[in-house]
Amino acid sequence: MPSLFQRLFARTPMARSTRAYEFALSQITLPPEPWVLDIGTGQGYGAAFLSRALPDAHVVSMDVRVGCIRWEELKTGPRPPMVVQASAPYMPFAHQCMDLVLAVMTFHCLPEPQRVLEEAARVLRPGGTLVLADVDGHHPIARPFEWVEHLFISPLTHAYTAEELEAMLRKAGFTHITFRKRPGREKGFLMWTIARLPSPA
Questions:
Q1: Would you kindly state where each structural domain of the chain is located, as residue ranges?
Q2: Per residue in 8-31, pLDDT tens?
Q3: How many CB atoms lie under 10 A from the CB of residue 78?
């Protein structure tokens, strides 16, 4: 059951924003009819956006709790997202079944973060892409953000730096790693991490 704070946060414009997803898609290339996994779907706005922006995609929406999702209130694409209740460190998916894995404002509070990245690498096909959009650990807002999250949401919250993420991603098997900020918002707190597995020989 979502906490009172989580239910109140769900009503804010920030919780409903899909701009982070939109920018992520603008930075990558996907094959036809891709399989896309959205980790930590929350209210479902991101997954619904993905199904609209990628009308030929198979979008899988995963969260440890799915009680906040109200699909009847969301506008989805021709293929509505499939919903799976599961924990990110233990994804119930076959090896090499996804083309894209995203975690938008989610990775900072996931348990066993190294295992989550290893699971993402396991379920991605060779050459597949992982995108993390989250608070930049070097930004001045990072520590206050952690304090608020520790008080109201999760004691696990940690705003990762690019250096921390790169080390973890390389350990998980990702080889092509870039960090990006939205043009014109280079001083913003949100950082996109784009990591790819080696392509098939």
A1: 33-196
A2: 444 443 444 689 999 999 999 999
A3: 8
Q: What does pTM read for this prediction?
A: 0.91
Cα atoms in the 13 Å half-sphere on the side-chain side of 123? 23
Distances from the Cα of 166 to the Cαs of 46, 59, 74, 99, 196, in angstroms? 25, 26, 35, 20, 12
Spatial distance between the Cα atoms of 165 and 177, rounded to a whole number of angstroms: 9
**The domain over range 33-196 is classified in CATH as 3.40.50.150:** yes
Tokens matching residue 120: 């993402």
pLDDT tens digits, one per residue of 82-108: 999 999 999 999 999 999 999 999 999
- Single out the residue of 115, 191, 194, 197 nearest to residue 160, CA to CA: 191
Q: In whole angstroms, what separates CA 176 from the centre of its chain?
A: 18
